[in-house]
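Handout, page 2. Input:
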Amino acid sequence: MKNFTREDLLFSLCGLNCGLCPMHLDGYCPGCGGGEGNQSCKIAKCSLRHGSPAYCSQCREFACELYADIDKTDSFITHQNRRKDLEKQREMGVEAYQAEQKEKIQLLQWLLKNCNDGRKKTFFCVAVNLLDMETVKQTVEQARNDAVFETLSVKEKAILITERFRRAAEEQGILLKLRRK
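Output:
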């Protein structure tokens, strides 16, 4: 969108974790405010009208009516935690939140390199996005430290780690699926 640029291309204005999105990882989307490929949206237009805060959570009107039903459906990335993640980022501070997101991105990259059987990219993106940092880190570390894990085929690794994420998500009441309209 014309005149809409941002510095943080890993966490969007509206709270999407672009750095954990398959479209961003594959280079199809530059992230919110990243230039060509970035689609205009009502939240970006609203931001321009309200002094261009870096994140909606920095707007004096957050959470406005635009957030009433914002997390109901997903696109390429889960939208389930947008408001919650903006509130978390505001509470933690921008730098601490960015550091956590960068760590999640590194863990996701490890999963995609070592455990993706060609069918788990979206699942891993959703799992890393929705599960808390400690759960993601613990699940990956268990796999890395499991001597048997290294002897498994990629398909077997994918099955094993997917099941571990599903169990952890179930314990937390989280469904690791994209919700379509």
